[in-house]
Design a protein that fits this description.
With about 90 residues, the protein is mainly beta. About 10% of the residues lie in helices and about 30% in strands. β5 (about 70) and β6 (about 75-80) form a beta hairpin. The protein is elongated and about 40 Å long. About 15% of the residues are buried.
Length: about 90
């Protein structure tokens, strides 16, 4: 499975070293993490309350899922998707 960010809105982000979730079995969670840059972190000292960022993932059957990122401590935000179908996700 290959996942790409479809949308990141509201602030700039610095991508951490990303490991794609290739060959993730169906029903197995995949986390895509990134960190807020210093400016965004200064603007959002409580990102769990003030940051609204999301991505869209498209299944092999072309159904689109909108997934919100959640705060994982510090400046780290995470998208978590649990693919329900085998095949290529974008």
């Amino acid at each position: 499975m290959r996942m790409l960010f479809a949308a990141l809105l509201g602030f700039s982000v610095t991508a951490m070293a990303q490991k794609p979730c290739g060959n993730t079995p169906a029903y197995t969670p995949c986390d895509i993490a990134f960190e807020l840059d210093a400016a965004a972190a200064a603007q959002h000292p409580n990102p769990n309350l003030t940051v609204d960022v999301w991505a869209e993932f498209r299944s092999p059957e072309y159904k689109t899922y909108r997934v919100a990122a959640f705060w994982d401590g510090g400046r780290r935000m995470v998208f978590r998707i649990n693919p329900v179908l085998a095949g290529e996700w974008t």
